[in-house]
Design a protein that fits this description.
With 269 residues, this protein is α/β, with parallel strands linked by helices. Helices cover 34% and strands 23% of the residues.
Length: 269
């Protein structure tokens, strides 16, 4: 019996180094008929070009595929600390609705039943990425009749630990993975407690600069795996200004910056 479903692959492509693709990811690339890529504007052209370069590098010359580029609806900018959680989630939900509607149209128009489409997801699709949620919305539609598989990838957290040569977890201790927004809310409390290890992603405001404590180590990295990669580590109070300066330098050179950092309590390491 023929399969009239449209198949979608969400392929984790690592944190910026084309050599980080797994064998499973390369196999998935070579089974794909249409790649859907979101254009986030001129400032982030390099991210789009990186995905295109991965296709050229890892897809066999005799495999035919197409790239469909779609404009990415801009994410609403909400000041840190401004909304309550419910209001913030409502803003993000509306943004997801806009994106899923655009993707549904693109899949309907460009991917034939029985064909395979793919999204190349920075890092791993499971960690602070909305692609799985967007595709889940589409999978609920009887019109598209989608089948979906997720291919894991190396995350920026894993890469940051490897580059700094540190373990992610401390012996017998927990790990918190959070966003800059949530960490800011935490440190705004009168008496806040951090776990032994705190990993912070999606932080455009370098929240670590607002932590006034001398018992913490900072392990910071930006644009990992790219030509503009930078790493800084040391006692938080001693290296904060260096990290802030390097972040601005990278943004000026590359036109974009994606950083991630880990804070570890000194007595736990």
């Amino acid at each position: 019996m023929s399969d009239d479903r449209r198949h979608l692959l969400l392929i984790g492509i690592g944190a910026g180094d084309p050599q980080q693709l797994t064998l499973q990811a390369i196999d998935a690339l070579n089974r794909t008929d249409v790649f859907f890529m979101l254009d986030k504007g001129q400032d982030k052209d390099e991210l789009l070009h990186f995905r295109e370069a991965i296709c050229r590098r890892h897809i066999a010359p005799d495999h035919d595929y197409r790239i469909v580029t779609l404009p990415n609806p801009p994410r609403p900018q909400v000041p840190y600390g401004a909304p309550k959680d419910d209001a913030y989630r409502a803003i993000v939900a509306e943004w997801h609705h806009q994106r899923s509607a655009m993707l549904a149209d693109a899949i309907q128009d460009t991917l034939l039943p029985g064909q395979t489409g793919a999204f190349l997801v920075w890092g791993d699709p499971s960690l602070y990425d909305s692609t799985i949620r967007l595709i889940d919305r589409l999978s609920a539609s009887a019109t598209l009749n989608l089948g979906t598989d997720v291919i894991p990838g190396i995350t920026s957290v894993q890469m940051l630990c490897a580059l700094h040569r540190i373990p992610l977890n401390q012996i017998g201790e927990s790990v918190l993975i959070t966003t800059g927004r949530k960490l800011q809310q935490l440190i705004n409390e009168d008496e806040y407690q951090l776990p032994a290890t705190t990993v912070v992603m999606l932080d455009g405001n370098s929240v670590f600069q607002h932590i006034q404590r001398d018992d913490l180590m900072l392990y910071w990295g930006a644009n990992l795996g790219t030509e503009h990669q930078a790493l800084i580590s040391g006692p938080l109070q001693e290296v904060t200004q260096r990290a802030l300066g390097k972040r601005e330098e990278i943004k000026a050179k590359a036109g974009w910056v994606m950083d991630v950092f880990i804070i570890i309590k000194k007595q736990c390491y």
